[in-house]
Amino acid sequence: MDDLTRPQPPRAADPVALTYAFHVFSRETMIRKLEGLTDAAQRRVALPSGATMLGLFKHCIHVERLWIAYAMGGLDVDFPWTEEDEEADWKVGPDETFESLVALAREEAARSDAVVPTLHWDEIGKSPRCVEEGLTVGWILTHLNWEIARHLGQMDVMRELADGVTGE
Amino acid sequence: MTETIIDEQGRTEPPRSGGPVEVVMGFHRFLRETLYWKCAGLTEEQLRWSPVPSGTCLLGILKHSVNVERWWIAQVIGGLDVEFDWTDDDKDADWRLLPEDTLESVRAAYEAEAQRSAQVLAGVQWDDAPKEAQAAAHGLNVGWVLTHMVEEVGRHCGHADLIRELIDGQTGE
Known about the structure:
The complex is a heterodimer of chains A (168) and B (173). Chain A is mostly helical and 168 residues long. Chain A has a single domain (15-163), classed as Four Helix Bundle (Hemerythrin (Met), subunit A) (Up-down Bundle). Chain A has helices at residues 15-34, 39-43, 53-72, 98-115, 128-133, 137-163. In chain A, helix 1 (15-34) runs antiparallel to helix 3, helix 1 packs parallel to helix 6 (137-163) and helix 3 (53-72) runs parallel beside helix 4. Chain A is globular, with a radius of gyration of 16 Å. Chain B has helices spanning 20-39, 44-47, 58-77, 103-121, 133-137, 142-168. In chain B, helix 1 runs parallel beside helix 6. The longest helix of chain B is centred in the C-terminal third of the chain and has 27 residues, at 142-168. Classes of the chains: A mainly alpha (168), B mainly alpha (173). Chains A and B meet through helix 1 and helix 6 of A and helix 1 and helix 6 of B.
């Protein structure tokens, strides 16, 4: 896992750009955590909660969409979850593969790349929840940073359980 | 936004607005308290149990995280002369548990570290250079150090999540 091809966060930057850069680092590391496994291993249920590596990856793509495109960008975007199935973003259909989810993550990344430079640390997010609770861009980006890092940590353990591979 | 909200797991919610150092440290506290929650209600044996070949266990994550905070805040930002659990001969010694390490003793060390961090960070700004010469020479600012630390501890919370789930099925963010 030690490679230098991941985009490294800049050493000094304004808080919006820097926090997003750390998110990007986690997103790219997660993709590498899934590489080199068979499709079956990526879909294997390894935990009592029923989580799979591919399902966790799919969830993270939609977490990014929720916080960046929807909550801060104010964009009209769709999500897999519904009132009947609030965890649909964890479920991977037979037509979805690692490759198709990487493509989805790349689309989301491009949208995030366009939204983030328009943001200021102190401004309130645009979604109804952000307005109601007074959640600022600084709060949202820092939340996203740890949430995706935390899911990456879960992925670390799932990968180690799958084939013993570890690494930052 | 000075109102303090404590959630069901006993964690202080991070401030919803504020300067970047304040917001990031609010999240760091939330993650530290998340690790306490993940360690709560278990036996000493469970706290030392590992499901993986690398031997990672809940109490080891907590002990390592104390050293992580000491490194980034006390040593790098504050330029203080502090001691760590790792050594030149054993760079992973901060992950290893001594017979006398308990949840109470490691938590006490973590709380003491948090107090020292608050003193170091008083009056420190995002764009300030760290006091440690090497980090300053690399061009890192305080913001990079703190944001990296939240990413690192957040990732360790993810490790703790799965180990806890494999111990007794408890999940939750």
